[in-house]
Design goal:
Shape: globular
CATH superfamily of the largest domain: HAD superfamily/HAD-like
Strand content: 5-15%
Number of strands: 6
Number of helices: 9
Helix content: 40-55%
CATH architecture of the largest domain: 3-Layer(aba) Sandwich
Largest sheet: 6 strands, parallel
Structural class: alpha/beta
CATH class of the largest domain: Alpha Beta
CATH topology of the largest domain: Rossmann fold
Number of domains: 2
């Protein structure tokens, strides 16, 4: 049966997490790439760690802390640059395949949703900057549960937020393999959007498909 609901992770899947440094980090020179990569690594590490130890700080706070660590690790102390990078993070570029795919899904009568670790303020800003609001039926964040993916309870909350659907009837797309593993373990039809050609991992929690971009999701519209 064709899927009725398509749910997407936001950061790295719909929005390019490295766009902030690309846009506002020219002064970083050869450190721009390493700082951007470390910023992302620490942002995610902090989300997992705070959940595991039973705490919760919102994703914007973790984004700030991740940037602070990355800048400090590379010996950068520039308050103006820090502010510019954080401002740019609120309006990350959407990948070019995002709007066409969402429009195709809406034209086919499918429900569309974002499910993200990000705060509602963060993701609303990114959606507005990319002009995607009219293509999305639901925006779901982990904030009400005060825990981060891949905790099973947050996937259950996302399922409940999009209506009375069975997990297998939700196509969940993420560029983060650990997120795909969490979604697959919960029972979603998880699709890995492997934009950067990473090797597979998390055996036992495989995606139903691995795609290089979002375009291939059109196969799930009528499959």
């Amino acid at each position: 049966m064709p899927a009725g609901t398509f749910m997407f992770d936001a950061y790295g899947t719909l929005f390019d997490v490295h766009a902030a440094v690309a846009r506002a980090g020219a002064s970083l020179g050869e450190n721009a790439g390493p700082i951007s990569q470390l910023w992302r690594v620490k942002q995610l590490e902090y989300s997992w760690t705070t959940t595991l130890i039973g705490g919760f700080d919102d994703f914007w706070t973790l984004t700030e802390r991740g940037l602070d660590f990355a800048l400090a690790r590379h010996g950068v102390a520039d308050a103006g640059l820090r502010r510019a990078l954080l401002d740019a993070y609120l309006s990350l570029d959407a990948y070019p395949d995002v709007a066409p795919l969402l429009a195709r899904l809406k034209a086919a009568g499918k429900a569309t949703a974002i499910f993200t670790n990000g705060t509602r303020t963060m993701v609303d800003a990114a959606i507005a900057a990319a002009g995607l609001a009219y293509l999305l039926d639901h925006v779901v964040t982990v904030e009400p549960l005060r825990a981060y993916k891949p905790v099973p309870a947050v996937y259950a909350a996302a399922q409940a937020a999009v209506g009375e659907v069975q997990p297998r009837d939700v196509v969940f797309a993420s560029s983060n393999r650990w997120d795909v593993a969490g979604a697959a373990a919960f029972g979603f039809s998880a699709v890995w959007i492997n934009r950067t050609g990473q090797p597979d991992e998390y055996p036992g929690h495989e995606p139903v498909a691995t795609l290089s971009d979002l375009t291939g999701l059109e196969a799930f519209v009528t499959a």
